[in-house]
Inverse folding.
């Protein structure tokens, strides 16, 4: 069975490389389209393997950038436009665009944030408190710092999870190589001994 699989792979290496290359190129071309970018960014920010981390990164960037701009005296509409232009995730871009429209219509910043799915209720409540007390830039920077620390802790936990997985993966590869080397030798010795 192993020998047949090896022969099959060896005989079709070029075909497998071409299929892999075409598949990767197709995915890259699809992601380059508007629909593909929207779907990919939605997947990144909402799906379990990456969602929580990407969401925290987006919130940290949004709050830190907006807080710094407001603290520097930039008007809120201009600051929101700069934050929107700086965002790389399409879900965040659409959310900030809705915020911009709502604030331009006279709403407070915290009201449309309650309807945005990417912002937790704790963040919207803190922004609401910042608006009511007149310390919105300080509150935004504090939220950004908190989420940056959470991202750092999540990345450290992820690295500590990846290390044992990599060790097991390498052990399987080394074990497979050792078996591939010694099984034919053992069969030869058995046939010579018989």
């Amino acid at each position: 069975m192993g020998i047949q699989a090896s022969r099959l792979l060896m005989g079709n290496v070029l075909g497998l490389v071409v299929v892999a290359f075409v598949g990767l190129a197709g995915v890259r071309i699809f992601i380059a389209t508007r629909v593909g970018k929207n779907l990919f960014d939605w997947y990144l920010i909402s799906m379990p393997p990456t969602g929580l981390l990407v969401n925290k990164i987006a919130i940290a960037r949004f709050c830190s950038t907006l807080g710094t701009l407001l603290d520097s005296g930039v008007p809120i509409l201009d600051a929101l436009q700069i934050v929107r232009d700086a965002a790389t995730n399409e879900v965040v871009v659409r959310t900030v665009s809705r915020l911009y429209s709502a604030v331009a219509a006279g709403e407070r910043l915290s009201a449309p944030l309650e309807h945005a799915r990417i912002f937790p209720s704790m963040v919207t409540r803190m922004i609401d408190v910042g608006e009511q007390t007149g310390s919105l830039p300080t509150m935004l920077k504090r939220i950004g710092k908190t989420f940056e620390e959470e991202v750092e802790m999540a990345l450290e936990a992820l690295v500590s999870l990846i290390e044992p997985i990599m060790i097991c993966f390498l052990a399987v590869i080394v074990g497979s190589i050792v078996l591939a080397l010694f099984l034919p030798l053992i069969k030869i010795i058995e046939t010579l001994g018989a």
Remarks:
- DSSP finds nine helices and no strands in the chain.
